[in-house]
Amino acid sequence: MFGDIYKGKKIFLTGHTGFKGSWLAFWLNDLGAVVKGYALKPDTEPAHWDLLNMDIESVYADIRDTDRLLEEMQAFKPDIVFHLAAQPIVRLSYEMPLETYETNVIGTLKVLEACRKTDSVRAIINITTDKCYENKEWPWGYRENDRLGGYDPYSSSKACAEILTSSYRRSFFNVAQHGTTHNVLLATARAGNVIGGGDWAQDRLIPDIMKGASLKQTTRIRNPDATRPWQHVLEPLSGYLLLGSELLKGNKAAAASWNLGPDDSSNLSVKRVCNSLQLYWENISLDYEKCGAGLHEATLLKLDCSKANTLLKWQPVWDSNTCIKKT
User: Taking the model in full, what pTM does it have?
Assistant: First the structure.
């Protein structure tokens, strides 16, 4: 898979204790990569990272710790860096805006600086989100060259991280100068709403429903008519790995921003997802809140992934029903 390009490669993975990060660590390890994780300790019980019980080097530290981050990266001498560490919850960003911006923006800055000061690094992928776009609630998908923005602190912080990454790509990792003044290719990846086994984070739709079902309690559902691009966790990870393989091969065209979302058939309302969940799990009891109640969250969000489909030859594999069934 991926032409065995990851076999024996050194991978520095921030956020490896999180939902997507733990799955990516597992997949990279399975591909024969030498993985070093750098993240805070898991903040859920149970935690997917703990359950995987993987034998890889794991550093529990904060990406905002400039000296520790640089020390660990330079000691490891990675070929490629996958940056996933973040404060990823929209509603939590309203409660903790300062920490959200410090982690998602300044943390990203410190990761890029550490990469710039580590001679072994050849490729960097900064994982952001589909929510980095200025959401106009229009019915067509956002393309990579659409305006960045964000209403809530989380979305805004990820737009800032995209702008920051673009600046570094122009200033320090300029594609035109690749192979002369530097040897690094830098890309960002914007995925949709990711679900799958191993997610116990707070304030996420499916984990909340599953917790309620396990306790035989009713789960309150916000904004049932809100539409999102739902995808299984393995879908964007396959895109990250494919993108990373192109960067490691020196494909300069891959040093850009990429949408990695599902096709239009998997753009479902929250209520439709809930109805599908009830086909596979017992004891699900739901109470739908009135749309628009509480904190602002976007109602309609779609991604146009034509660029990745055409240029990376990346395609989603599972439709929404299979995605929910596998979860």
Answer: 0.95
